[in-house]
Every structure is written in structure tokens, then in C-alpha cells.
Target: DDE-1 domain-containing protein
Amino acid sequence: MERGRGLFSFFTALSAANPSEVKAAKEARAARDKADADACGERSKAAKKAASQSCWNEATASGSKKGLSNDPEAIRSRERRKREAAKREKQRAKAFNDSNAAAANHPEPADVEKETHYTDNKGRKRKRKTLRSRTDGVRYTKAGSVIYSDTECRMVAETFDRIKARNLPGDTELYAKTAKDLRSRLPTTFSKLGRQQVRQIILRRERTGALDGRGRFTPLPAVLITAILLAFTSVVKARATVISAPMLQPIAIGIIIAHGYTSLLREGRGKRGEFCCGLHFVRGLMKQKGWRNVKPQGDTRKVPPNWAELVHAMVLRLAYFVWQHDIPKELRKGKTWITEEMHKSGDKSLQNHGDKRQCTVVTATSAAGEMLPHQTVMEGKTVRALPNLGAPYSYSHTLNKSNSKGTRSFCFVPSPVVAATWITGIASFCLTANHWSDNITSRAWITDVVVPYFKRKIEEMRATSLESCKEFGTQVCVVIVDVWWGWIDAGWKAWLAETHPWIRLLYVPPRCTPKGQPMDAGIIAMLKGILRRQYGTWVCDLVQRQLRGGTKPEEITVPSDVPTCKRNLVNWLSEAVPEMNTTEKSGMLKCWEATGLHKAWNKDTQREAVKKLQDGLFPNLDLDQYNLGDEGMMKVVAALVADAQDNSEDQDAGWPGLPVLQTVPGTVAQEWERWIDWDSLGSASSA
DNA sequence: CCTTGCGCCATAGAATCGGC
DNA sequence: GCCGATTCTATGGCGCAAGG
Model:
């Protein structure tokens, strides 16, 4: 309905506005031409055009515009054509007036005249240009002639062939004869067919055979498209799971490169209007195959309305710790130090598969922007469930206990050789029944990740200055965790208080994880970005290797077996740690600042914290006990534990985050560029 | 993820020109 | 009247960013 009306009003607009508009356009153009002719100099309209014009004039040594011939016959011809044009114009104007009169009872000329846009045949809004085209059942060009359909073009071509066969090889006027023939034979369809149109159709057929070569040419050769589609089909079939465009993109790029079309990518890289095998393109291919994209579950977490208050309270608590225990301020200057932040990121393994291939990664960063080694939690019971790192005795067994939910958990650390050589970024491997962290893995995390870190840092600091902090084991350190049952488990906290009394726990207020936890959005996102890139590199490389090795496109596979996935994940995670610590450091610091936690080293904040102590900053704390100082350490820890226990478990803390492969909107549009070593490709292709 | 709006590129069509 | 060439306009299709 709406659309119909739009078309209708548009049509009346055409009738009403056309004569004057056309006339105005012509006048404007004449003026422009005259201006150009008068002085091929600094006309505002188009410096470029003027420049080319003057060049032309110099080349032809002719003073007039466009090198018009001075031949008397040419002049006469020009004048004749001018007269004819004027005549045609007059006729056309009359025709428009007639149709205008016919449509006179149609309403709202005012609305119509204001129209500056129209809807093209695909429903897109387009700005009006000088002249307007008409739309009804048949397609018209702006001047009102018919655009011929596929079959009609074929008829024209056939007629042309017939006439050409009838004539002698040297004969001319074939186009005109064809047009005439068709006009007389099929007047309803071809009443307006002209010789130039015939010529266009014939030439186009000779060139391409395509119906309309307009628009961006197909970026890739048809062979490549077929190959990519075959590979997609193969991969999708093998997986039998949900597939998303970001997963297939590296495959497509791999195929393109393997076929030697790297230049297509290189040239278009990052530039507008050029092909760069974007997600859009991949999605287009997927749609072509009839596949559907599945909308992933978004971030549905709700932040409590008073989150700012809650987070501030947390900052104050941290400030109090800082004040009370004189936790070094070197932190503020960027030296690595004490505070820990951690978060479990349920990494939906890289392939976004079913639950079986998930694993949990526990990551942590210090407030100075250093990322600690990860802890991975996978599903399984024995060492064999861990990825094969290629060396015997890769793992050392550390813990084997039943967790608070009754199932057994196993923890390992990589053997010294492995840890020193390639798996530098993962310090703890755990196996649980469901790949979730529990109190046992938390214990392993403390002993295998946190404590070594603190120890190393404290020793480093004391090596430069004994004043900088107290000895390891005395200096109080703070670990910030979110409220999750693994961290509030009473047995675990008791164990912590018993064995590592110098560690303070600080809980992010429930449901405030997105606001109060630096890990949550930013750092995890960066980590996932790195993993995505590594996945992309891997697939890209894999596909290329397979193709070079003679694999047919339809046989391309991306291994998704559990061992491969685990191995990749472990390798990538491990590599991500040093990378985060070098290239992404400033980003991590920014994430910390976003939470306001760094304010804890601010004297004002500390003063406020001390003041608020009376008002229940630590609600479950008996202040008298607390003021006992070091002697009351144990009790303090217990009280803090109790404090945290009041907080109900934060269901959302276990939220795994978006699938790794989904890009965060607006952050990583051209990420795949980094999957490819462009320099090596460049040298390879030139060699 | 999807839609919208816009810019870019390249070509088809229209208008025009010189020439036969 | 027609052809081939040239110039200007119209339009197809995609990349990209913002907003939902």
C-alpha cells in the first residue's frame, strides 16, 4: 500500500516537474560548457575536467571547445542537428504537458515537488539526479525508452544474426536494418528499438554474453567461487554443527591464496569499495547455499541499578587493604605488583561446538597490566585427557581430591622442561568431570599460578630495594575474584586462610562483574581476539597446505577432533600470554582504569575507606578483632570469608562470554589481515 | 546478527560529435 | 541515415560504520 502510493506520487512528480527540470538541467549544462569554452582555466566546476580539456586543446592546437571542426559542412550538420533537437524537445514538452493534463486531478503537487529521493527497483532510496526515470511494469530508462529483458535481447541478437547471414560480408547498416525489422515485425515490444541499442546488445554479447555488466564485477573467478563453496560444504558436512561466517572466512581466504589470487586480497585490503573477502561476502556465499546464520546469544546480563555504589565499596575495601598493609604503590608507576584479578572464561573451545569440547580458562592479570599464566580446566580423569605436548612426562601430578560436589578433580602442572620451552603461558592443567572449575582447581590455581607469581614479584622487588615490600609470606597480597561458588566454597577459603594467610580475597559485588571486573569485557575480549586471530591463521594455513598438497576443494577439512582442538587451544593460550604482556599492555591498564580500582592507591580514597570502616565497609567484620592487627590475621581472614559468603552466588559469573569467534561489533573489522604474513606472500608471489 | 545510509567503482545508457 | 567514439548520467553491487 505504502509502496504503491510512493510510486504513484513519484509518477505525478515526474509529470509535474519534468519539463522545467529538464530545461533547467539543459541550461545549466549549456552554461557550464560555455564557461569551459571561455576559459579553460580555474572554473570551479571541475578542475580535473578543465585540466583535461586544456590538454586536449593544446594537443589539437585548436582554440575552440572539444576541438570542434571548422569544416563548413560540419557546421551545417551541427546546426541541422540543433534544429532537430529543438524540435524533439518541443514535442517532448508537449507530450509531458498532455500527460500532466491527464494527471491533473491527481493531488498534492506540492508534496511531489519536494521529493528529492526515489525508490529504485530494489527498494533502495536513491537521490534524484538531474533527470528522472519512470517505473511501471516494464523498466524504462530515464528518457523513457524501454530496457529490454533477457529474452528480448536474445530475440534482437537472433534477428541480427539472420540479417547478417542474408547480407554480404561487407554490408553495413546491419544494426539499423535489424532495428527496422524488429520494429515492423513486433511493434508492441520493439516500437522504440533503435540502432544504437541493437549495437549495444550485439557488442555486449560479443564481449561477455552477460545481461548487465554493470555493478561491481564478480570479485573472484567463478572457479574460485565454486571451490570455496565446495570447501564450505565439505567442512560444514563434516562438522554437522552450527557454522558461522567468521569460521568460514579463513577457509575462503586460504583458497583464494592457494589459487594464486593473493593480489585480489592485497589490493583490496582495508580500502573501501574494494574486495577484501569480508564477512559480508562470506555471508553472501552462505546465503547462496541456503544456510542460515544463527544469531548468537547476546550479553543478557543485568547489572544491578546501584552497581556504581557496590563497585565503589569494593574499591574502598581494596583501598583499605592497601592502606592497612602498605601494599606498594609501585603499582601505580607501572611496576608489576600485587593485585590479582581473575575470571574464568568459559571458552567455548574455539569451534563453538557442543559442550564436550569446552574447557574453562582461568586467567588473571595484575593491576600493573601483566597477564599471569592461565589455568585450563578440561573434562577428563587421567593425563591422557590432556593434550599431547609431544614430549614424555609432560605433566606432573599435583592434586587428586574430591571437590565439594563429590566428584574427583585432578590437577597437573607442566613439567619443568615443557614449562620452560613452549608452554610458557599455562601453569596449571586441571581435569574435572564437567570441565568447570571447582574448589580443587581453585586450590591448584593458588598454588601453581598465584603463589609463584607473588613470590617472583616480591623477590624481584626486594632485589632492588628491601624497603619496597615485606618478605614473601608476610607481605599481604590481594586477590580479586568474582563471586562464584569455587571461590566462596568454605573449605577452599579455610584452606587458603590456613596455608596462605597473607592472601586477601576481594570479591567483585554480585552481578557487577561487567562493571567492576577489569577482566570481564576488555581483557577477555583481547584474549579472545588473539585466539580468533590464531584460529584464522591456522585454518588459513591449513587450507592452503591442503590445496597445495593436491586436496580437492570439496575434500578440504578442518580437523575438529578433540585432541587437535585441545592442542591448538593450549598452544594458542600459551602464546597469548607473552603477546598480551607486550603488545596489549596499555590496553590491559586501560581496562583496570575503567573499573576505578586503581583509585585504591589514592590517599583520598584510602582515607574514605578508613572512615567508612565504621559504617560497615566489611559488613561481617568485627572491628575489634580486626584492629588486633597481625595477631588477628586469621580471624580477619575468616571474617572476610564470612563477608563474602553473604553474597549469594553470582550466577552470571559463570557466563562464558560470547563465543570466541564472534567479533565484538565495531572493534575488529579487518582482523583477518593479521592472519596472513603479507610480506612473505609478497616475496613468494614475486619470486 | 540485521538494517540503513552512504561512498566507491565500474559499466550501461543517452546524448552528442565527427565522419562516411 | 548510419557508424564509431566520447562524455555525462544512471545504476548494480559491495565495503563500511552506526544503530538496533
